[in-house]
Known about the structure:
Number of strands: 8
GO molecular function: DNA binding; DNA strand exchange activity
Mean pLDDT: 83
Order of helices and strands: EHEHEHHEHEEHHHEEH
Oligomer: single chain
CATH topology of the largest domain: Hect, E3 ligase catalytic domain fold
Distance between the termini: 76 Å
CATH class of the largest domain: Alpha Beta
Helix content: 40-55%
InterPro entries: DNA_bind_recomb_sf (IPR038109), DNA_bind_recombinase_dom (IPR011109), Resolv_N (IPR006119), Resolvase-like_N_sf (IPR036162), SSR_resolvase (IPR050639)
Pfam family, one: Resolvase
Protein name: Site-specific DNA recombinase
Amino acid sequence: MIYLRVSTLKQVGRDTDPDGYSLPAQREACERKAASLDAEVVEVFVDRGESAKTADRPEFQRMLSFVRAQGDIDYVILDKVDRFARNRRDDANIMFELKSSGTTLVSVKENIDETPAGQLLHAIMAGIAEFYSKNLATESMKGMAQKAKMGGTPGKAPVGYLNTRQRIEGREVAIVILDPDRAPHIQWAFEMYATGEWTIRSLTDELERRGLTAVPSRSRVPKPLSPSIVARTLSHRYYLGKVIFKGQEYEGRHQPLVSEDLFTRVQEVLRAHDQSSEKQRIYNHYLKGSVFCAACGSRLCITNAKGQYM
């Protein structure tokens, strides 16, 4: 049995082969190893775009279930130990489970047999894989912090903007530009909410009617924004041209979508609605959210009387 994995979807779909370069290379190497062991490959499990920091990977879990169900799998063959796990605890637990099923883990590039030397090498390689994963995360965080300090956007830009790449002075640079389809809707939302005549719910419904959706991705279809996302959007300082990372605010290089004055007015309306406990109702009344019962303290609600109670 063969297990293959790549960490990101960017590694999939390169060239004319939908699996890119890495997965076919891993598979070919594993098949050669199986042939050298005179073993028949009965199943191949492939995780595309899955991190080994956790064992909670769809195909990996299916592979373990397959091993348990069959009970007669001699080998699980993989390209390198870091395809298997980048966490020593997961590595030890899964190795115990494989051994309980009579299955041997075989690495194409590392000699991790059942000898004391092979087990020592496996332990060392598992430790190196965990170190690499944690060190990569630390270095990545440092890189994102430096990017934010320089005005860049660490991660995905909010709705109204697009992450893209542009060639500048002969090199490709990641930049953020205004989304021509969504930016006008976000500007309109700020302007309308600043009037104080809209609630989050009514604004959300109108944005949906106007056709605003989230940016689609490979795994997510475009959907209308939820009220909670609209509320977060109206209080997001990114639209002022700011970048916030780890609680620190920096001047961003991206184009602001709203003015300081407009943003301030929107925050005042948000605070006013929050303080008055205004609910997202369709009935308008100038005392709505402001009148409370003297006996129990409950907020009084407006209702439309019908029939004999009119």
